[in-house]
């Protein structure tokens, strides 16, 4: 029996879709259904008990040409069952227990939305849906997710342009040949109400349809005023599920309308009255925004056509996508630029706003299969991709006195109240109901002046896992990208400003795998990534500008030595790896004042994971990540103070004092533990903890969020085979901690304790 298994892409219903894989250090528990519906174990709970078969489970991407046990890279897969079990309702919730992932805050340059950091690198632009890049910033939902797949380390060989830390792929639910409907209705503290429906029907010979529905309303636990509201619908239909020729058509629609809580609290040190240090929290419930002003409305429409044909040991597949997303917001950032909290006990209500629409077209044609040359067995995947992304970015204009304090003409707030236009508020006792909008009309900026950016990418790739013998495998991957991006900024009564970057870059993934036994592997791998200017379509940290438009892509490389083991008849999975990631030509300012590819930063780390069943009833999972990051060469900075917007005088540049500092948003230590136990009388009890070390918000390492430990708990009870109750308590001890650190002004506080009770029904 060969260790390589050909990917024929059977319907996902046949792929052990309820198992959780920790082959890449997912610390989440795995539960699976018992085959005997009449057994006491199966009656224990709707959170069906499962046997973990880590190396048998496969990610959705055809670019993985071996089982994950034999893939020389850190990959985590989080299933729908795990997402349900921990009570997650969005992407941040679903990923919160994966060590090595943190989250950054948005502002003006970085849109407010999902902004994960993977191994210290900003992954906001490294999001994928069903293997195709998803560039529009959103707060992503989980109601239509089959699973989440996290590839860690430079991964441009898999997905093209990449920030260097890895990528996250969201796998959508698709039809299967089984009549099955599940519904969940939940209520909870903080006005929580959530309902989902997942209905799958067989319509004919090889034909099935699936419909997923969502409605969600809730406040934010421990926070005044803030709330979220969203609804979604995701229909899909499939033909030929029982034959070699298959066609799946699907659409995803999600709308949100929130009173956002992105601001949190400003950094500061009351003892020294400076704006450095940890966030100042007079009361965790304080909400500095305005009900009368703040909003965030997003919309996502994604249509996908997935066609495939299997012949022999090979499969030809084409997946095409049309996407249209929008993200409109105006919210309050608790600014500290004038040190108002320390000087006056007040706060300036700075506004951040954005109105952006993003349209995408992507097409991926691939051929996968297996063949043999002489005594060598190959499992391969090759393909071509084309994508075109168009974004249009505008803003909201605030009339009247604007957001400055009319008494001072700037952001200084010695007093508060109506005389300040309610742009200044009491830091210790803010009033989110201040009547702001009556004297501050808000209008959309002239769409004719929106900044437009178009990015086109043409790619070709190939992967091959070669079995040299039963003991030795070689994994190879290669990708070429032809990248072109152009940004057009209209200027009133003048010619527009046009920025452009065109380049081609080659990336690869190579690894060797030694199998001392069939259930274990030891691997050594090397991978690269390229980060070109403008790769984020104007949405985040890699926006194009005049200073960098002609620069080469930043290049990152990663060395990794790891091992993966399936124990206890493949019920328990153990993983460990050490890695070194290095960006050798980071964009920095040099002593001439120009920006060049001259910087260097590196991170050394260790990841350890355990996941599976110790006994038939006891599941345990955990993970630990150590990341030692360093800004080795951060360029130069101006050694004298100059007015904002003015150039540094010649000869006044000095070596950056940030050299040797840690990466922002990169904790040195992070650990998780989650466990469940199934009792024979219908009760499941689960609990977990996550620890995240201190994180800096800025490269100067002067602003940070403290370390924290968070506890969660779950109880499930099976009323009968198809009806169960599930109680989740998030942040069990009501811990005050911060989940996101922005570089300059503020950090985002986490929700307080919240409890939800869900009734889950299957028929």
From TrEMBL:
Its main location: membrane. One of its GO terms (biological process) is siderophore transport. It is found in: Cell outer membrane. Pfam families: Plug, TonB_dep_Rec_b-barrel. This is TonB-dependent receptor. Residues 1-32 form the signal peptide. GO terms for cellular component: cell outer membrane. A motif (TonB C-terminal box) lies at residues 746-763. Residues 254-732 form the TonB-dependent receptor-like beta-barrel domain. It is a multi-pass membrane protein.
């Amino acid at each position: 029996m060969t260790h390589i298994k050909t990917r024929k892409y059977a319907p996902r219903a046949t792929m052990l879709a309820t198992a959780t894989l920790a082959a890449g250090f997912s610390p989440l528990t795995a539960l699976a259904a018992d085959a005997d519906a009449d057994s006491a174990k199966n009656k224990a709970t709707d959170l069906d008990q499962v046997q973990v078969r880590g190396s048998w489970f496969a990610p959705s991407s055809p670019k993985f040409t071996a089982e994950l046990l034999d893939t020389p890279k850190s990959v985590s897969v989080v299933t729908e069952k795990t997402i349900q079990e921990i009570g997650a309702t969005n992407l941040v919730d679903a990923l919160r227990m994966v060590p090595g992932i943190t989250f950054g805050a948005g502002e003006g340059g970085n849109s407010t939305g999902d902004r994960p950091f993977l191994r210290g690198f900003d992954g906001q632009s490294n999001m994928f849906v069903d293997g195709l890049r998803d560039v529009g910033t959103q707060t992503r939902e989980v109601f239509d997710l089959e699973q989440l797949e996290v590839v860690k380390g430079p991964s441009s060989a898999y997905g093209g342009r990449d920030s260097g830390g890895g990528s996250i792929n969201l796998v959508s639910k698709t039809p299967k040949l089984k009549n099955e409907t599940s519904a969940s209705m939940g209520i909870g503290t903080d006005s929580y109400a959530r309902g989902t429906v997942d209905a799958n029907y067989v319509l004919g010979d090889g034909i099935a349809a699936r419909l997923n529905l969502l409605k969600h309303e809730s406040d934010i636990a421990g926070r005044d005023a803030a709330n979220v509201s969203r609804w979604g619908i995701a229909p899909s239909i499939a033909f030929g599920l029982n034959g070699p020729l298959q066609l799946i058509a699907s659409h995803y629609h999600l709308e949100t309308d929130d009173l956002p809580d992105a601001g949190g609290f400003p950094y500061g040190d009351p003892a020294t009255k400076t704006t450095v240090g940890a966030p100042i929290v007079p009361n965790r419930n304080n909400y500095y925004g305005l009900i009368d002003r703040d909003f965030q409305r997003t919309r996502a429409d994604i249509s996908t056509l997935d066609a495939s044909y299997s012949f022999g040991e090979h499969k030809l597949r084409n997946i095409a996508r049309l996407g249209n997303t929008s993200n409109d917001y105006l919210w309050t950032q608790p600014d500290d630029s004038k040190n108002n909290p320390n000087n006056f006990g007040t706060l300036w209500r700075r506004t951040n706003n954005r109105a952006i629409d993003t349209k995408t077209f992507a097409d991926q044609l691939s051929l996968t299969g297996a063949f043999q040359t002489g005594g060598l067995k190959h499992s391969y995947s090759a393909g071509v991709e084309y994508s075109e992304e168009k974004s249009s970015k505008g803003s909201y204009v605030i009339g009247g006195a604007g957001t400055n304090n009319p008494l001072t003409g700037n952001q200084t707030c010695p007093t508060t109240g109506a005389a300040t236009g309610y742009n200044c508020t009491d830091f210790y006792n803010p009033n989110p109901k201040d009547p702001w909008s009556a004297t501050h009309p808000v209008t959309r900026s002239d769409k004719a002046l929106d900044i437009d950016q178009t990015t086109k990418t043409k790619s070709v790739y190939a992967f091959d896992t070669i079995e040299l013998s039963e003991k030795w495998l070689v994994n190879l991957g290669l990708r070429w990208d032809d990248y072109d991006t152009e940004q057009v900024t209209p200027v009133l009564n003048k010619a527009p400003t046009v920025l452009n970057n065109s380049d081609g870059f080659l990336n690869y993934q190579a690894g060797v795998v030694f199998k001392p036994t069939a259930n274990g592997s030891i691997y050594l791998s090397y991978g690269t990534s390229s980060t070109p200017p403008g790769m984020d379509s104007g949405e985040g940290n890699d926006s194009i500008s005049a200073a960098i438009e002609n620069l080469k892509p930043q290049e990152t490389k990663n060395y990794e030595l790891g091992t993966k083991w399936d124990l206890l008849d493949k019920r328990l999975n153990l993983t460990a790896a050490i890695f070194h990631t290095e960006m050798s030509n980071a964009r920095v300012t040099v002593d001439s004042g120009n920006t060049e590819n001259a910087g260097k930063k590196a991170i050394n780390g260790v990841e350890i994971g355990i996941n599976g069943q110790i006994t038939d009833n006891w599941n345990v999972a955990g993970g630990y990540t150590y990341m030692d990051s360093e800004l080795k060469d951060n360029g130069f900075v101006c050694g004298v103070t100059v007015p904002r917007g003015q150039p540094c005088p010649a000869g006044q540049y000095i070596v950056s004092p940030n050299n040797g500092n840690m990466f922002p948003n990169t904790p040195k230590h992070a650990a998780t533990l989650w466990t469940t136990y199934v009792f024979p009388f219908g009760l499941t009890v689960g609990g977990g903890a996550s620890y995240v070390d201190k994180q800096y918000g800025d490269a100067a390492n002067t602003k940070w969020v403290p370390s924290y430990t968070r506890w969660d708990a779950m109880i499930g009870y099976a009323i009968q085979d198809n009806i169960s109750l599930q109680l989740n308590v998030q942040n069990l001890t009501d811990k005050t901690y911060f989940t996101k650190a922005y570089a300059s002004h503020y950090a985002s506080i986490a929700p307080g304790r919240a409890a939800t009770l869900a009734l889950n029904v299957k028929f």
